[in-house]
Structure prediction request, 610 residues.
Amino acid sequence: MSARPETPPRKDRAGVLRTRAALLAALALALGIAFVLSLGFGPADISTIDALAALAGSGPEPTRVIVMELRLPRALLGTMVGATLGLSGAALQGFLRNPLAEPGLIGVSSTAALGAVLTLYTGIAGAFALALPLGGVAGAVIGVTLLQIIAGRGGGALTLILAGIAITSMSGALTALILNLAPSPFAALEIVFWLMGSLADRSFAHVWLALPFMAVGWVMLITLGRPLDALTLGEDTAQSLGFDVGRARTRLVLGTALAVGAATAIAGTIGFLGLVVPHLLRPLVAHRPGALLAPSALGGAVLLLAADIAVRLPFPGNELKLGVLTALVGGPFFLWLIVAYRRSTLA
Amino acid sequence: MSTLAAENLTVALDGATVLHGIDFTVSAGEILGVIGPNGAGKTTLLRALARLIPHGRGRISLDGRLTKELAADQHARRIAYLGQDGTSGWAVSVEALAGLGRLPHLGPWRGPADTDRDAVARALRACDVSHLAHRPVNRLSGGERARVFLARALAVEPEFLLADEPMAGLDPAHGLQVMETLTGLAGTGTGIVIVVHDLTVAARYCQRLVLLYQGRVAARGPPGAVLSPGNLKAYYGIRAHAGHADGKPFIVPLVRTDEAPDP
Prediction:
């Protein structure tokens, strides 16, 4: 370190910056490793080394096809979906000043799921390749429109949560109705399996479909840093510091809807990730909601890639679905979080 | 010298008019106390002044310019607001929390500069919380927290500070400390509008008072005139013992007067 004496506050600030840079670098490194590892897992016996070689354009033709057309899009989608869930979870928690918030809370994942399920039920999904994710995106757009109508401008955090619950339960009921009316047990099973969430058998077409929605959503969310910091002090004080809370809210809702809607349309419902990731990383950014956004995006991508590797490990019986795994791990964590949160607020 | 003025200000909440034709001016370096019984409209007045709620008729001006025409960041740099509910959503450090007061001063994509860090350090010192700088705010006592939130408002280094009962819930020593800090701040040229319930505090620390009653200005002027036995009876419905001790004024409420206060 520098031998020159520094004043304590400046040293401290440099320390904070270093810590943050180190955290981002560590997460980026972890993402790189998870991404490469992810290329090495699948039904075909292609090692990580072979996969890397195939990426570089060498190796046997079938290996190249499998890596480029199956494994690479899967790893990319895992990164994109994970980053979306982590980022929107951090943004929602920051806006609502509540560590128990998650992207599913505003109801958009449910309407996206409903839209996708409708295409399965009506058979449109079989008509052309992207019908299913397009249905999901349409569902997300309808969901966010409803949300804006119910909890429109000026509504507080509570209105947003209540509207989200209402939309979630309505679309949940409609999804149940579709399952109920499914023409055959096989059709119902197809829908149930899709709802469990998975990245299997996705292609670059899915990447290109989701990317524009997600990219716009990411930009809207990641630029919310300062308004979220200001909201640490509550809506009144944030406004007195020059931030338009209503506009921040609109950006949050639209950004989440675009990114999470597209993620759900591609991968089905993957719970708990958006809840867990910001919570794990929060102590590492000194609890500042703005500084939590970028690390949560990276952390979400790492965790989802890891989970997607885990479901591809040899497992007796059917392949475990991604959403099932995240729920299995996330459920107990959520419970622990509530207990810990209650203890800290009651103390 | 800068002045913050309300002229003929009318504010409606949910369709009901809460403030009727309020007039007052506060100048740089002055502490103006807003007093009145519960529900008189004190907090509403402060929120309207801070541009947190829109007002109806009338105007609020800063040095003759309408505040609603100021850009959001400009308004935020010149007029700071310290609300009543001093809670932090996250367990950030005291220094980081006070640093939020610098947000209106930061350029886009720029982190805090030396001037910002100096302002935060000064604010922490002024509120006597420098030693807590690295403590998480959720581990503070009520008195410490109130001073940290005051430091956040001071870190803005505004021309005018609007403070809503900054000593609510504080023990006497901490209450006095907060008022001494505000007096020091006024001494450096900041104009302060403060909502107060404690009549002794109003009498002792405010240069002028505005007494609100049912959304109208019932009395205004120096504390001695506003806190007259007649006004206390008419608007608060109390009889009080007023006097001086160590050369400082005090007012102790004694009994409720039986007759209902008349407007």
